[in-house]
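Researcher: I'd like a structural prediction for the single chain below. Treat it as a standalone chain; there are no partners to consider.
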Amino acid sequence: MLQPFPTRRLRREARTVELMVRRYCADHHPHHQPLCPECDALLAYARKRLRGCPFQEQKTTCAKCPVHCYAPAMRQRIQQVMRYAGPRMLFSHPVLALLHLIDGLRKPKSPKNAPP
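Model: Treating it as a single chain, here is the predicted structure.
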């Protein structure tokens, strides 16, 4: 079993990504509940990347991050999901959507364990 995310910020980020993937899957692959295998794999990959994020609590959104840790194919898939689900989050989860937009305004900082 995976450990929970260590900070509120990362838990919120994980929840936002999960809701976006679930929305995308429900609208594009409606015969799979709760998630189709492709979307389930994408969500697991996103969680794994988030757990290993060197910025942790100081992270901006992944789109603004100077370190692109997603493999190119997975990055393209998550971008597709976010382009679709992001605007729809304003209606279904407005607080999370607003906080995600605010996170995108953060300036990228140095990774938590980076050398000085």
